[in-house]
TrEMBL record:
Transmembrane helix in keyword set: yes
Lineage: Bacteria, Bacillati, Bacillota, Bacilli, Bacillales
Gene Ontology terms: cellular component: plasma membrane
UniProt superkingdom: Bacteria
Topology within the bilayer: Multi-pass membrane protein
Residues spanning the membrane: 21-50, 87-107, 128-149, 169-193, 205-226, 238-260
Keywords in alphabetical order: Cell membrane, Membrane, Transmembrane, Transmembrane helix
Compartment list: Cell membrane
Protein name according to UniProt: Membrane protein
Amino acid sequence: MGRAFSTLIPNLWRRVEEDDVLGLAAQLAYFFLLSLFPLLIFLVTLLPYLPITTEDILNVIRDFAPGETMKLIETNIYEITQKNGKLLSFGIIATIWSASNGINAVVRAFNKAYDVKESRPFLIARGMAILLTFAMIFVFVLALLLPVFGKQIGLFLFSEFGLSGQFLAVWNMLRWLVSPIILFIVFTGLYWIAPNKKLTCISAVPGALFATVGWVLSSLAFSYYVSSFGNFSATYGSIGAIIVLMIWFYISGIIIILGGEINAINTKFKKEDC
């Protein structure tokens, strides 16, 4: 265990170059961009069946997304909902297929981290990507529902004990814990199931922990930089928001792939120790 930890950084640095992590992250950023709006469209189609609103979805994204990108996302989502309120139809199949492109790209990146080729048939591999997309949507919806019902339950309990005035302060603290926990669950599932290699759930934890902490911190730092120092609109004009979104996706891609590489290194050392 000590040997694995002491050699993690040099091994990770070597793998960044050998596996072209930065190049793969650029590919992920492209597929994330293609997947974002189909994924949000599908979530919007579920709203009539759930006790949440479009604003609830945007609030979760707003916690981490750079300011300029939120204007782009909000504008497109509101245009979609106004033009067509009944999107849940046969066309949603194409939407989910497009949304799964991001997961499919992640699968390829993880396979490279473990030095394995994709031997699963195309339909099975794509089907798995679609199922993981659905799972991610389910977890995301659950993350939205927990605050809704949690707040109602909390208000009831706190009012029973005469602590209603203190509830909002406590709730605002707890709200920041929900998103990282949900992220950790999503990353653990991805690192466990996505690679074309038999793994245990425990083996996915180190990379999931790194990706959760790394993604939250890097997203908050980049969001602060964009809002305080970066003036991308002055450089790129009207496409400034898209550039910011792509850079955010690029940073996210690097973090996600590094988490997969950490798990691959950890798995390799464990095999050598046996």
